[in-house]
Amino acid sequence: MRKVSVPVDMASEQKILLGVISMRQLIYVLLGGGAIYSVTPLVWSLPLSLIGNLMLNLIVAIPFAIIVILLGFMKQKKYNMFYDFYFITKLSKKTQTGVWRKGKRREDWM
Question: Structure pTM?
């Protein structure tokens, strides 16, 4: 049987936006941008100076940006998966409990 090597990584995500961002990453960017966009009018309505409002906007926007960058773009090196899949796997691990078989023969545990 003949073996042919594929020069492309078939396991990675397909980049849909200009070959840079995948659909999952685009959704994270849109959700994070929407969250920042919805919080910004609340910050601007506070009776502060222009510099105070800008600083408060940055302070509010930085946690959203960190969450988007962490979940969408950074990989867990040990398991070679993005952090969102890693956290989902860690959370679902506690619900996956097995039934342990007792006895050596099949009739003992059936």
Answer: 0.70
